[in-house]
Amino acid sequence: MKKWLCLIISTTAALSIGAGALADSASASMTEPKGDVAKMYRIKHEMKFDLQGKEAILDGKATTVDRPIRKDGRVYVPLRTLRQSGAADTVTWNDEKREVQVAIHPELLPKFGHLTFRIGSEDVYLPDGKPVGEKIPAPFISSGKAYIPIRALSWLGMAVSAVKDTVRWNWSDKVIEVLNPEWETDQASTTFTMLYQKDMYTPQYMVSSGSDGWGGYTGKLTQKDISMDGRLYNRIQFTVKLRPGPNPVMLTANSAGSKIVTVKRKVTDPASLPVSIVGEGKGNIAFTSPIRGYIQVKPNQKIDVSGDILQHNDLYDKLTLSVERYQPSDEDSYQNYEEVNSIELPLKDQAFTGSFTISEKGSYLIRVLSSAYISSVESGPWMTQWAEFVVEVE
């Protein structure tokens, strides 16, 4: 058993009460962020070379870098010039394997973020060691520099061209600039706006469903053609339903990656907040304990879980509690909840009962998962989430 939790389970009958949707009836005023919380835009770059000259032009300014060369009718570029241009985060030479590992800047949104070019090999390799599949003219070393064919740059998020003696690379950083990374409210939802460059894809927001993933939602366009910093923007408004405690909200678009803002919901009246029954849990489950969707406890304080199953199904044999600690990453990671334990509650006479404790302080999402009863041709019956509540260990 994991050190985080201790479970005491017994199987008894339990009384049944209804459980409502996640909502707080408190009438306190909403605290909304002032102004836009984020701005999404594109920064265009161009590097131009004259194969007969000594300098390059980067974003309109002369710069000294290693120039491409022509060999056997093809144009090759020195890999370290990627780093000099700012398009690559790192360019690393492995002398033992005679290969160069390239990590491209993530805001380019390249087809491949990390590639390895091996000297003398027509294959290009992914981080797992597998080849990309398409072959290229073999990279080589000349005057201590590793060169690759220029067309391989398209895999790294760049548009390339070579006309006579002029070589161009074009790329753009797709930026989501967070202006307000976190705020608090005492309401069950929060409304905010963000700007996005007009010629980019419309952004959406995603909310975390715990360690299980994220769900995406759209917003409402509220203003168009806003002129700012030499660009035209539109403004979009999002309204996000909130759990008690911290809520990571991901701002994302096909054209610009993603960034996370965090909204903390402060619960002023825990008694008004029932356990949240979701999806197919409605009509299938009722709780006698806990009756609140937000519980504050001390470390190792017992938390009782009991209730009734309202529908009969021969496949209903147990419930599973997924106990997940809110543990955000320093980076904009998709993983904001870590499952610290998974607990089975056997069903007897369509009732369940048990208890558990949590030893470490923090905010925890408790997801109540059904029996595996939903048919799937490929993988057999699978579980779904029926309910959830939040535990704050202080």
If you had to describe this structure to a student in words, what would you say it looks like?
The protein folds into 3 domains: 5-22 and 274-393, Immunoglobulin-like; 46-173, 2-Layer Sandwich (Copper Amine Oxidase, Chain A, domain 1); 179-265, Sandwich (Immunoglobulin-like). The two termini are 23 Å apart. 2% of the residues lie in helices and 51% in strands. It contains 1 helix and 31 strands. Strands 2, 3, 4, 13, 14, 16, 19 and 20 form an 8-stranded mixed β-sheet that branches. The relative contact order is 0.18. It has one helix at residues 80-85, and strands at residues 5-9, 38-50, 56-58, 61-63, 69-71, 74-78, 88-94, 99-104, 114-118, 124-125, 140-142, 145-149, 159-163, 166-178, 182-185, 189-197, 204-208, 214-217, 220-228, 231-241, 245-253, 257-265, 276-277, 285-289, 294-297, 303-309, 318-326, 337-346, 351-358, 362-369, 385-393. With 394 residues, the protein is mainly β. Strand 13 and strand 14 (166-178) form a beta hairpin.
Proportion of β residues? over 45%
What's the total number of strands?
A: 31
Low-confidence stretches: 1-29
Helix content: under 10%
Shape category: elongated
Fold-level CATH name of the largest domain: Immunoglobulin-like
| Cα distance spanning the termini | 23 Å
| Average pLDDT taken over every residue | 89
Derived from helix and strand composition plus strand pairing, the structural class reads mainly beta
| CATH homology superfamily name of the largest domain | Macroglobulin (MG2) domain
Q: How many DSSP helices?
A: 1
